[in-house]
Amino acid sequence: MEKQAVVVEKLTYDYPGSEETPDVQVFEGLDLQIESGSFVAVLGHNGCGKSTLAKHFNAILLPTGGTVHVYGMDTADEGKLIDIRRTVGMVFQNPDNQIVSNVVEEDVAFAPENLGVDPKEIRRRVDEALQQVGMTRYREHAPHMLSGGQKQRIAIAGVIAMRPKCIVLDEPTAMLDPQGRREVLSTISQLNKQNDMTVILITHHMPEAVLADRVIVMSDGGIIADGTPEQVFTQVELLQSVGLTVPETTMLMHELSKEGFDLPLDALSVDQCAQAIYDFIHAP
Ligand SMILES: Nc1ncnc2c1ncn2[C@@H]1O[C@H](COP(=O)(O)OP(=O)(O)OP(=O)(O)O)[C@@H](O)[C@H]1O
Ligand SMILES: [Mg+2]
Question: Which long-range contacts (CB under 8 A, 24 or more apart) does 132-136 make?
Answer without folding.
Answer: 132/157, 132/160, 132/187, 132/190, 132/191, 132/194, 132/195, 133/157, 133/160, 133/187, 134/183, 134/187, 135/104
